[in-house]
Amino acid sequence: MSRGYGAQSMVAPLRRVVMRRPDEAMASADPARWHYASAIDLGAARAAHDAFADALGAWGVEVLYHEEPLPEHADSVFVFDPALVTDAGAILLRMGKELRRGEEEPLGRTLQACGVPLYGRLEGDARCEGGDTMWLDHDTLAVGRGFRSNGEGVSQLRGLLGPLGITVLDYDLPYFTGPDACLHLLSLISPVDVDLAVAYPPLMPTAFWEELRRRGVRLLEVPEDEFLHTQATNVLTVAPRRCIMLDGSPVTRQLLEEADCEVITFPGEPLSFKAEGGPTCLTRPVLRDPE
Questions:
Q1: Angle at 99 (CA atoms; ends 225, 187), nearest 5 degrees
Q2: Mean pLDDT of successive 10-residue segments in the chain (291 residues)?
Q3: 234 closest CA partner among 195, 169, 281, 177
Q4: What residues pair up with 17 in beta bridges, in sequence order?
Q5: Contact (CB, 8 A) for 143 and 161
Q6: Residue 177 buriedness (CB in 10 A; 0-12 / 13-18 / 19+)
Q7: N or C, which terminus of the chain has less Cβ within 10 Å?
Q8: How many Cα atoms are found within 13 Å in the side-chain-facing hemisphere of 180?
Q9: pLDDT digits 0-9 by tens, 121-146
């Protein structure tokens, strides 16, 4: 396709992504304030991030960088959350985590510099983070409602996406470990093909599980330990059954490989395990092929 943007899929071949390297804001962040497991070593975090970017490049994905200075935003490396990219352009979301508010417009400027027009933005009391959004197909978006995304956010998304022919389905997320932690809808599932996903069903909304079953999606159930400690459900699909995940989840990796998936891993300890964000969170897909 001639247009350089449009990513209404979780699994179609990935062509372009925006990423942001870890910076001094993350390295100097107070772990208690930002809900990190421990302080971030900038050199080690950048090495892990670069290994991830190199893996994407090796699979033919163009990596674009968001480099606008954001000295007060330690989490801005997780570029998946402040925006959504549709066939009509970018929608700037509104972050549910107060410390992250203000990331949206700078990422929007970077997307515009990469050729993605702004289609719309959430306003007022709306809250929605990208991690709570999952494309079920090109014309259906699932949204998790929890501590990071609210009913007004869902309502405004419906208003923006309806004219594009997109249906928004929303599901209540569980309390789990409370408002300070990060439990997104995509904390619980990552599609790796139109009919296959890694998932942690014990925390999934029942109606969401039923919708996946209705669609014929087979769930590879990750073990509790790998869900809790090594983000086994956070997998970035580069093409159907071709994916990138964090080191440290051998059971989940075996499940994927037994399902004929090609898997690449990169180190999770320096960045992702400390700051609650894996390969999906570290990328904002800009362009995927039509399914």
A1: 25
A2: 87 98 97 95 98 97 98 97 98 97 98 98 98 98 97 98 98 91 94 98 98 98 97 98 98 98 97 96 97 73
A3: 281
A4: 63, 285
A5: no
A6: exposed
A7: N
A8: 7
A9: 999 999 999 999 999 999 999 999 99
Query: What does the alpha-carbon distance between residue 23 and residue 229 come to, in Å, rounded to a whole number?
Result: 24
Q: What is the rounded CA–CA span in Å between residue 122 and residue 168?
A: 15
3-state secondary structure of 180: coil
How many C-beta atoms surround the C-beta of residue 54 within 10 A?
13
3-state secondary structure of 246: strand
> What does the CA dihedral 71, 64, 266, 33 come to, rounded to 10 degrees?
20
> How many Cβ atoms are within 10 Å of 257's Cβ, its own excluded?
12
Q: What are phi and psi of 161, to 5 degrees?
A: -90, -25
170 DSSP 8-state letter:
E
Residues pairing with 134 in the sheet: 142
CA neighbor of 217 nearest in space, from 282, 93, 134, 113: 134
Report the distance separating Cα 230 and Cα 249, nearest Å.
6
Cα–Cα distance for residue pair 141/137, rounded to 1 Å: 7
Phi and psi torsions of 69, nearest 5°? -60, 135
Residue ranges of E strands in 79-233: 83-86, 89-92, 118-121, 133-137, 140-145, 167-172, 189-193, 196-199, 218-221
Going by C-beta distance under 8 Å and a sequence separation of 6 or more, which residues neighbour residue 225?
none
Q: Residues 80-128: pLDDT tens digits?
A: 999 999 999 999 999 999 999 999 999 999 999 999 999 999 999 999 9
User: Are the C-beta atoms of residues 45 and 51 closer than 8 Å to each other?
Assistant: no
CB 188 within 8 A of CB 233: yes
**Domains of the chain, with CATH numbers?**
14-288 (3.75.10.10)
